[in-house]
Design brief:
The complex is a heterodimer. By secondary structure, chain A is α/β, with parallel strands linked by helices. The two termini of chain A are 21 Å apart. Chain A is built from eight helices and ten strands. In chain A, the strands form two sheets. In chain A, strands 6-7-8-3-9-10 form a six-stranded mixed sheet, sandwiched between helices. The radius of gyration of chain A is 17 Å and the shape is globular. Chain B is of the alpha+beta class. Chain B has 16 helices and 14 strands. Chain B has helices at residues 3-18, 20-58, 70-73, 82-92, 95-98, 130-136, 161-166, 202-207, 213-220, 239-250, 261-264, 266-304, 306-314, 319-351, 384-410, 414-417, and strands at 63-66, 101-115, 120-128, 143-146, 156-160, 174-180, 186-197, 208-212, 228-233, 257-260, 357-358, 368-369, 372-373, 377-378. Chain B is elongated. The chains are: A alpha/beta, B alpha+beta. The interface between A and B is medium-sized, with 31 and 27 residues.
Chain lengths: 238, 422
């Protein structure tokens, strides 16, 4: 297990996010209080517009709450400066996005090692960790390819590698399987379950994907920015 | 620099390469601008050098050593005594000065009346040493008729073409010069025209008469004295250094004063400054266009890559690091284009360095400016100082023009950026 603390990987207290849209206040997240334990594999589900992505952004410090508080590793985010938030994102959070969002000018290896590079990890250590990870998730040999030369599934694996390589407290994944076919999606889920089990990485997903929900240890269902259902379950095997 | 900071230039460089066509087009425009700038600067410097050269040769040299009151009075009473003249000559023989002096002309100048067969016209009579003056002044090479003065001449004169026309003089004609001598009495001197010159400068052609120095001294009764010791240096760029050195040497004497050409010919310096300002305005406009090109390219690049900057911020890049990526892109684009443009500009300068650029189709051969006749062929001048200044300016422009796009990149809403479709 990479995380030794028993404190929650991320938690929120009465967190709200209200957007201004055409002069109207849109309440995307309404007073959500929840806590996610280290090593958990959580799916936040719900219909489009229910606030899944916004909640994920709040957990990752990508957006600031309108009210309430968010903690990552017991570090409260709302009082942090932009610089401190950047450091938290760099060291404690990994992101996987629906559209992969690899940097097109960097190779697969350079994309995956980017957060390590920003953390000042040596070149040899970066290469070693990324190469091991690539082998573990089935994309060994693709290190020198640019994203444009990778399939969607391969790109998303590189994105997952980029998210977990720095051993963050949690990985936030927004619809990571939405652009993938069923087989590729299952294979990617296998990778993430494997990383969850072997590295103890905490995963929090926002998704509609039923297959992903079936693999989760915990499913939180949002409706209109509020938690409608929060249940623990035995994940189905891949 | 930490490893994280070292990673950013690589990212910036690849982004510049990624938008190859856009970078190339902008870079080419910028390179052209810089090339134009470098060449126009070299041409401007060349023209100014030529004007200064023409001015100092026509006038009192790069440095004029005179009696303190002479520049304002132009009066024979304010002349240099023989002893002061000898002291000034010794000052110029100092090794650090002498090795940079091309010629030293002793002159005796006086305002006089030139009387020909039909009229009398006020003129400036200059007593000169023909051997020295032939090298010093361009007048000796601008003979229209007859010849220039020679060492053995005594009652000979070298007159301007317009003066000759107005006084109906020809080579061999006689004229009488009348001026106030050193004793205050009016003195006349008969001379015969040895040659007629046409400099193209109306004031000179209508108002200058040169006679041998010894004739002038005898006529005016000034003994071995003179009004001006005109010094021609190897380059106009060392004038202030040399003037200071000469001033240090003659500093203790109150009967000697060293004037730089700028002080002796303020109208020429003013003319060059006005022309310089015109150049500066042109350069500011050019730099402005270059800056706008950079702003446009880098800003478009930032807006086009909104999602990428969102990703970089999500991955943990700080606002300062994000801005530095953008600024580095701008600086790379500017540096490459700048160096290329500079190389082209320098190449053009080199091509025209030998024969110059002929503007005779655009200006008349006797076009004058601030008291000098402009040469229709301008030879551009290459200076490392100009190269260094251009590079420095380009670098500053690159940084400043990238600041706004960089600021925009730091203000990207990360969550919103993820929804952005390029």
């Amino acid at each position: 297990m990479m995380t030794t603390t028993t404190a929650p990987a991320v938690r929120s207290d009465e967190v709200w996010k209200i957007f201004e849209h055409d002069g109207l206040a849109v309440e995307a997240v309404r007073g959500i209080t929840m806590s996610i334990d280290p090593g958990d594999f959580v799916v936040i589900a719900g219909p489009s517009g229910c606030g899944k992505t916004t909640l994920l952004n709040l957990f990752g410090g990508l957006t600031r709450p309108s009210r309430g508080k968010v903690w990552i590793d017991e570090r409260e985010l709302t009082g942090l400066s932009e610089r401190e938030l950047s450091k938290i994102r760099l060291e404690r959070v990994g992101f996987v996005f629906q559209a992969y969002n690899l940097l097109p000018v960097l190779t697969a290896l350079e994309n995956a090692e980017f957060s390590l590079l920003l953390q000042g990890v040596s070149a040899n250590e970066r290469r070693r960790r990324v190469t091991e990870l690539f082998a573990a998730i089935g994309i060994a040999g693709l290190e020198d390819r640019f994203p444009a030369k990778l399939s969607g599934g391969q790109q998303q694996r590189v994105a997952v590698a980029r998210a977990v390589v720095g051993k963050p407290a949690l990985v936030l994944a927004d619809e990571p399987t939405a652009n993938l076919d069923r087989a590729t999606s299952d294979a990617l889920l296998d990778v993430m379950v494997q990383l969850n089990q072997e590295m103890g990485t905490t995963f929090v997903f926002a998704t509609h994907d039923m297959h992903l929900m079936e693999r989760a240890k915990r499913v939180v269902r949002l409706v209109d920015g509020q938690i409608e259902l929060d249940e623990r379950r035995a994940p189905a095997s891949g | 620099m930490t490893a994280s900071w070292r990673a950013l230039p690589r990212l910036a460089l690849r982004n510049v390469r990624r938008q190859a066509r856009r970078s190339l087009l902008t870079g080419a425009a910028m390179a052209l601008g810089v090339a134009l700038l470098a060449f126009s600067r070299a041409l401007g410097d060349g023209a100014h050098e030529d004007w200064i050269e023409a001015g100092v040769r026509m006038g009192s040299g790069h440095i004029a050593i005179q009696s303190p009151g002479y520049h304002a009075s132009k009066n024979l009473d304010d002349r240099l005594s023989f002893e002061a003249l000898a002291y000034a000559n010794r000052a110029l023989e100092r090794s650090d000065v002498a090795e940079r002096v091309v010629a030293v002309a002793t002159r005796l100048e006086v305002q006089a009346l030139a009387q020909g067969p039909t009229a009398a016209i006020p003129v400036m009579v200059t007593g000169v040493d023909p051997d020295v003056e032939r090298e010093f002044s361009r007048l000796g090479r601008q003979v229209e008729d007859g010849r220039y003065l020679e060492r053995g001449d005594r009652l000979h004169a070298y007159v301007g073409a317009r003066l000759a026309e107005r006084l109906e003089l020809r080579v061999g004609s006689r004229l009488v010069l009348t001026a106030q001598g050193a004793d205050g009495d009016i003195a006349g001197q008969f001379v015969r025209v040895a040659g007629i010159f046409r400099s193209g400068l109306p004031e000179a052609d209508a108002g200058i008469v040169q006679i041998p120095l010894w004739t002038a001294r005898e006529w005016l009764g000034v003994g071995e004295s003179a009004t001006t010791l005109a010094v021609l240096l190897e380059s106009g760029w060392i004038v202030s250094e040399m003037v200071n050195t000469v001033r240090e040497t003659i500093g203790t004497r109150d009967d000697l004063r060293a004037l730089s050409w700028q002080e002796a010919m303020p109208e020429l310096e003013a003319g060059i400054k006005v022309d310089d300002w015109g150049d500066y305005v042109f350069h500011v406009v050019l730099f402005g266009i270059i800056a706008l090109a950079i702003v446009n390219t880098v800003l478009m690049s930032v807006l086009y890559r909104t999602r990428e900057f969102g990703v970089l911020r999500a991955l943990g890049l700080t606002q300062v690091q994000t801005a530095s990526v953008v600024v580095t892109e701008g600086v790379i684009l500017t540096a490459v284009s700048g160096l290329l443009g500079l190389a082209v500009g320098v190449a053009f300068t080199w091509i025209f360095f030998r024969n110059g650029l002929d503007f005779s189709a655009f200006m008349e051969s006797d076009f004058t400016f601030s008291g000098v006749v402009l040469d229709t062929v301008i030879i551009p001048v290459f200076r490392w100082r100009m190269v260094a200044m251009s590079l420095g300016t380009i670098a500053v422009i690159g940084v400043f023009a990238s600041l706004y796009p960089a600021y925009r990149a730091t203000q990207i809403d990360i969550a919103e950026a993820m929804k952005f479709e390029a």
